[in-house]
Write a structure and sequence with these properties.
This protein is α+β, with helices and mostly antiparallel strands and 103 residues long. Helices cover 32% and strands 21% of the residues. Helix 1 crosses helix 3. The chain is globular. It starts with a strand and ends in a 7-residue tail after the last strand. 21% of the residues are buried. Pfam families: Trans_reg_C. Keywords: DNA-binding, Phosphoprotein, Two-component regulatory system.
């Protein structure tokens, strides 16, 4: 079980929860969240995400990650304008925050 903030992810059963509510994610959405949660607090580059989640070293589409990230944020209830879970680090990648910094 991987737990960061109030998100729990079970890699064995491929199930995800935010607080007490289960969140149903598609295969790629789950893999994206897992890749970020496994390295919570660290910036994960888009190249690393394309390799780890999509299994490719080339860009299938520059918007692939953004589209999936949008779906994930919506399902987890993370406001894309003021994210508390997954933040975009411009020019570097994405980071799953280890704590809510809105305080």
């Amino acid at each position: 079980m991987i737990e960061v903030q109030d998100v729990r992810l079970d890699p064995e059963t491929r199930r995800t929860w935010r607080g007490t509510e289960e969140v149903v994610l598609s295969r790629k959405e789950f893999d994206l969240v897992r890749a970020l949660m496994e390295r919570a607090g660290d910036i994960v580059s888009r190249d690393e995400l394309m390799r780890d989640v999509w299994g490719t070293t080339f860009w299938t589409s520059s918007k692939t990650i953004d589209v999936h990230l949008g779906w994930v944020r919506r399902k987890l209830g993370d406001d894309s304008r003021h994210p508390r879970l997954i933040t975009t680090i411009r020019g570097r990648g994405l980071r799953f925050e280890t704590e809510d910094r809105t305080g």
